[in-house]
Design a protein that fits this description.
The chain has 153 residues and is mostly helical. It contains 7 helices and no strands. Helix 2 packs parallel to helix 5. The relative contact order is 0.14.
């Protein structure tokens, strides 16, 4: 049984996990199919695709720093709403993109917004709504799992 459901109730737990799962499904699709689009339709090399996807890394670092500074001051609902709006805007921008569209008009804002949505939702779902003791148990379980896997390799 999930620990956050005892503190916040099942309704919030289902909303947070559902929104996060749907967002991450979209994040994976955007990352994969945008790289495929750039390689197959724009005929870019692997290095050029890497440079075109670099805004995801930069915006991810910046958003995580900002989230770390404001996470304790802003409500979970507001942050989840901002993340969901960023996801929605990104998916809408990328869905209206044509093959001859400019990188700066469609791909760049779509990449930045999808990372904003993913990072905010990840922070809210995993850090804000989970007690510190539970986070330590998750960390301990990951370390032990990696240790067990290392013994089999």
């Amino acid at each position: 049984m999930c620990l956050i459901s005892w503190k916040y109730g099942w309704k919030l737990t289902v909303q947070l996990i559902g929104t996060c799962c749907l967002g991450f499904m979209g994040f994976s699709a955007v990352s994969f199919y945008l790289a495929l689009y750039l390689q197959d339709l724009k005929h870019l090399s692997a290095l050029e695709v890497t440079v075109q996807l670099l805004p995801m890394v930069v915006s991810g670092v910046l958003v995580n720093v900002v989230c770390g500074l404001v996470l304790h001051r802003v409500s979970n609902k507001v942050l989840t709403g901002i993340g969901a709006l960023a996801y929605t805007a990104s998916f809408l921008i990328l869905s209206f993109m044509k093959q001859e569209a400019s990188y700066w008009a469609f791909i760049f804002p779509g990449l930045v917004l999808v990372v904003v949505g993913a990072d905010i939702q990840f922070n809210v779902t995993n850090v804000r709504s989970t007690p510190i003791s539970f986070l330590f148990l998750i960390f301990l379980q990951c370390v032990l799992s990696l240790r067990v896997l290392a013994n089999f390799i």
